[in-house]
Amino acid sequence: MKCLAADDFLWQHNLQTLQCLVLLIYAINHAQGPAWSLLGTTLSIAVAIGCHVDPALLNVTFVEAEERRRAWAGLMMLYTIQNTCLGSIAPFEITNNVQLPMDMEDDEIMSRSLPLDDLTIVDPYSDDRPPTKMSYVLFKFRLYRLASDICCLTSSQTMPQLDQIRNLNDRIGAEKRAQIRRFHRHPDLPIYQRAHSFILDNYTNHLMLLLHRSFLTTNDSVDPEIISTGYERCEQAAYAVLSNYENLHARQEFRSYSWYTHGIGAFHAFFAMSTLLVMLGQTKRTAASKQVIVQAVQSCLGKIQEATPFSEICNRAYSILSPLVTGNICQSDTSPGEASATPASTGSKDASVQFMAMNAGEECEIFDPNAWPLAEGLEQMISKIPCEQWLSSAGFPWADALHL
């Protein structure tokens, strides 16, 4: 901020000032700091220098065009995150015609000589290239649009139409397949790309849980086959979230991503654990399958407990779930080197099997899964709290959840 102030950024606007402000807000936001007060100023600067106009309509070079699009995309992403924190499902709208930035590396942009109108747009759902530094942002834009559509569908008082659920489920599946092509088929990706793969996969599975959670507490009027499918998708998505979270928590190369495991990642794990506990208390399962759920929840809750001194989200999640889990928290014997290198949802058709393999060395306290005391409020928390409040810990009613 001192450097920006020395540059008179409030009066002398330029693209470099805008780029610095966007990066600064991201950094403060990751540190759980008060960043939103800067957002309005940053938007005003962006509009003042014309970033709300697509560069194809301006007399600028290809490099500057991509710089402008990237800065505007970053700003719109920040506004989307802010809206989510405030519990708003509507995407941030401002009159603009700016295209998303190209999925290119910096050196590709520098070597480009084609006019903007001659660029070929690659279909994101058929692209097999390794991910670029922009791929993560472009994936997140599509996932945020999906989140908005899911919230709009599930916010109605009636059970959504089956074809609507199938459509959204197919879109989630398309995103998963696109992530597999871009990330998981390229084993030698840098660490930050592997971390992005875990984060994207967890957000995608979080959306799967939000879409199908209504089938966990639905009445008998719904086709049993539909309910069974909803249970299966929720179970696999929840296991995948917990497995990915433990990978990011345990492996040394991901230590710099504690902003995620102490923040939104912990919140996603909280939702996944709560979902599994509701399923454990409701469904007729074998003792072995129930034990897998117990181990998964206990293992992940142990990781959440470790982070409670550093994270208010972890502290709240642990306070809610720990009284519901009988016995001491099991600590995983899986070393960081043994953890899966790819997101759980892609390593096995049945995520519960993969999770069982990851935690095979655990020995839990004696626990009778057939006598699971499902807290009435836990079921209500999963099914009744509006979808948009499950998108961000800032918009979640923690006070109500603490009184299960």
TrEMBL record:
GO terms for molecular function: DNA binding; zinc ion binding. It is found in: Nucleus. Signal peptide: none annotated. GO terms for cellular component: nucleus. Residues 13-162 form the Xylanolytic transcriptional activator regulatory domain. Its main location: nucleus. The keyword Nucleus applies. InterPro entries: Sec_Metabolite_Reg, XnlR_reg_dom. CDD domains: fungal_TF_MHR (cd12148). One of its GO terms (biological process) is DNA-templated transcription. The keyword Transmembrane applies. Pfam families: Fungal_trans. Keywords: Membrane, Nucleus, Transcription, Transcription regulation, Transmembrane, Transmembrane helix. The chain crosses the membrane at residues 259-280. PANTHER family: UNCHARACTERIZED TRANSCRIPTIONAL REGULATORY PROTEIN, ZN(II)2CYS6 TRANSCRIPTION FACTOR (EUROFUNG). This is Xylanolytic transcriptional activator regulatory domain-containing protein.
